[in-house]
Structures are given as C-alpha cells and as structure tokens.
Amino acid sequence: MEQGGDLTIVKPLNDKREYKRVVLPNALQILLISDPDTDKAAASMDVSVGSFSDPEGLEGLAHFLEHMLFYASEKYPLEDSYMQYLTEHGGRSNAFTDSECTNFHFDVNADYFEEALDRFAQFFIRPLMSPDATSREINAVDSENNKNILVDAWRWNQVWSKF
Ligand SMILES: [Zn+2]
After folding, report:
1. Which intervals hold domain Peptidase M16 N-terminal (predicted)?
2. How far apart are CA 144 and CA 142, in angstroms?
C-alpha cells in the first residue's frame, strides 16, 4: 500500500510500479504512476463533462470541444504540430466523449514526455480555435453522429449511462 494524499492506494503484491496521488491548488487531481522498466510514457486527462451536459439546442457541444482541443494552442500555434510531435517520437493520441466525461490521452517515447506533456497541457490552458478548424470539426462531429445514430450499441450505451 502507498499513501497518496488522503487516499491509500491499494495495489496487487506483484505490481512493482509506484503510485502517488497529488491534488493541485486548483483542485485538479493527479494520479502519478512510475514504471522505470517501460520505454513509453503516457498521460490522460479526464474532464467530468460529457454529452449529458450539452445544452438544449447545442447537442454535440462536448464532442465538438473534444475535437477542437487537439488542433493548436497559443504556445504551439501550428495546427497539428502536437500530433506530428507525437508521431515523430513513437507516440499516438486519442480522445473520446462519453455521457458524463470527456477523456484525452497520449503516449510517447519516454525521453520526449516532458515536451509532449507541455503540448498536451496547453490545450487545456490556452487552446486556439481557428474559424477554419471550427467549421471543419462541426462537419466531422455531425458526420460521426449521423454514422453512430444508426448503431444500436451507441443507444444502449446512452441508456445504461443514465443508471
Ligand atoms: Zn469524434
């Protein structure tokens, strides 16, 4: 067992990784996991807002914001430079919008984690949303929705999320 803030982290005996929980002054909760035997590093940001929070008349807003965040930030304004950075350093990235949360994540070769994390964090600190990317992603989100609306598994997921 390891102490993490006010939580005790319980892990299997054969799990050699180290865990630590940190809560920042802005209330952001962080779970750090250290595994010196891996050559990859990864991060995930989970925001407790999903499609159930979409205001009436703006259905798809959470999903749209999920798409928009990965374009550019004030610090890294070149569109898609985040994805390019990850690809060049053995990494990848993805995100999803669920009913009650939106999740963003990436992995990258461990030596490049610090800059990758800074690029990732800037999307949440000062994102850049150009009018050009905005209209592109409105269309992308709309076509994704039109494709998924016919799939029963998505409706099941929404129904089960209500309980
Ligand atoms: Zn999408």
Report:
1. 30-159
2. 5
